[in-house]
Write a structure and sequence with these properties.
InterPro entries: MoCofactor_Util/Proc, XdhC_CoxI, XdhC_Rossmann_dom. It comes from Streptomyces botrytidirepellens. This is XdhC/CoxI family protein. The protein is of the alpha/beta class. It folds into three domains: about 1-105, no CATH class; about 110-200, no CATH class; about 205-365, NAD(P)-binding Rossmann-like Domain (Rossmann fold, 3-Layer(aba) Sandwich). The protein has helices at about 1-15, 55-70, 110-120, 160-175, 215-225, 255-265, 280-290, 305-315, 320-325, 340-355; strands spanning about 20-25, 35-40, 45-50, 75, 95-100, 125-130, 145, 150-155, 180, 195-200, 205-210, 230-235, 250, 275, 300, 330. A six-stranded parallel β-sheet has the order 13-12-11-14-15-16, sandwiched between helices. Strands 3-2-1-5-4 form a five-stranded antiparallel β-sheet, with helices on both faces. Strands 8-7-6-10-9 form a five-stranded antiparallel β-sheet, sandwiched between helices.
């Protein structure tokens, strides 16, 4: 995605028209989620992907046509069992791809969007990708750029802009990209217009507690997965940037106090994952008591079976009930037979991914049915 953003910025600044193809909806075993983009530049180069290689050739040709005509197109790509080698997704999925021409005249708000993304500020693009019926107002391809407190651009009417801005802010708050439908004048009960809302929010956070070797490996893999990683430990001599160079932040503070402060400041949300690697009750019990009461995506704690049972007893003594205890991934990670800190980090990351997408953790060779699940994040349990 960084390559896509860099090239888009360069071409837009140069005033050269190019095409952006964006996945706006998926079904079945689609390989990439909505919001994934591919660019076709003025020099004929292609950056990014919409399907992992299945339909890129067809999308490339369509993108060149759209760049020339300036007319946006919504195209569906799929595959049937008796036509598996035609243009389509050999994985059996179906995707809708919206292809549009991008240049400073067509997207004057882009500089504002790029600046927000660069600075880690939340912003959303709401683009009209389909019109069910005549489109004399030319709504197809129009966009509204939505921030938490402002909106620029227009989709064609004040009422539609107001409705979309309100709903886009809801998606923005949860860091979720999605599709919305409205009537021509913004009524939510009608479906003449299909809007794709592409959300650019700050990356989700991974809070790693315990300045140990496992935390260094966890910081590396968390950064690789796109998390903003913070390592926190109460001992300043161990909580140093030198020991954790790949963490975005290293904090010396009592873990439970740091988490409470971050939560009160609104800097953790339902996308945040917490990995407690201290396996010391004076640190992890107050921290887990705090974490389990928050609507986080994942809370895991390292330790032996004996440590786990002792930890549960101590947490029950603090008043944590069984429903909240059921949210705790302890002992942390999947059974991969991991031994080294790096292998253990892979085990923990695998559990986080499986938890996010409701994966079983089983070997695919032992399963039947779809490989890819729908691209929707399961809401975190309420504390």
């Amino acid at each position: 995605m960084r390559d896509v953003e860099a090239e888009m910025h360069r071409w837009w600044r140069a005033g050269e028209p190019f095409a952006r193809a964006t996945v706006v909806a998926t079904w079945h075993s689609s390989p990439l989620p909505p919001g994934t983009s591919m660019l076709v530049g003025p020099d004929g180069s292609a950056v990014g992907s919409v399907s992992g290689g299945c339909v890129e050739g067809a999308v490339y040709e369509l993108a060149q046509e759209v760049t020339e005509s300036g007319t946006p197109v919504l195209e569906r790509y799929g595959v049937s069992d008796d036509d598996a080698f035609a243009v389509g997704l050999t994985c059996g999925g179906v995707i809708d791809v919206f292809v549009e021409r991008i240049d400073p005249a067509a997207f004057p708000e882009y500089d504002d969007v790029a600046a927000a993304v660069r600075d880690g500020e939340p912003v959303a693009e709401a683009i009209c990708v389909a019109v069910d019926g005549p489109d004399p107002a030319g709504r197809l391809g129009r966009r509204l750029v939505v921030r938490p407190d402002t909106a620029t651009g227009s989709l064609g009417s004040d009422r539609l802009d107001a409705a979309v801005a309100e709903d886009a802010r809801g998606l923005l708050a949860g860091g979720r990209t999605g599709t919305l439908r409205y009537g021509y004048d913004g009524t939510r009960t009608d479906e003449e217009l299909t809007l794709f809302v592409s959300v650019h929010a700050a990356p989700p956070r991974m809070l790693v507690f315990g300045a140990v070797d496992f935390a260094a490996a966890m910081a590396r893999i968390g950064t690789y997965l796109g998390y903003h990683v913070t390592v926190c430990d109460a001992r300043p001599v161990f909580a140093t940037k030198r020991r954790f160079p790949e963490a975005h932040e290293v904090v010396a503070d009592w873990p439970h106090r740091y988490l409470r402060t971050e939560a009160e400041a609104g800097r953790v949300d339902e996308r945040t994952v917490v990995c407690v690697l201290t396996h010391d009750p004076k640190f992890d019990v107050p921290l887990l008591e705090e974490a389990l009461r928050l609507p986080l995506a994942y809370v895991g704690a390292m330790g032996s079976r004996r440590t786990h049972e002792d930890r549960l007893r101590r947490l029950r003594d603090t008043g944590i009930d069984e429903d909240l205890l059921a949210r705790l991934a302890s002992p942390i990670g999947l059974d991969l037979g991991a031994r080294t800190p790096e292998e253990t980090a892979v085990s923990i990351a695998a559990e986080i991914i499986a938890d996010r997408w409701d994966g079983s953790g089983a070997r695919l060779t032992s399963l039947t049915g779809r490989i890819h699940r729908p691209h929707a994040v399961r809401p975190a349990a309420e504390g």
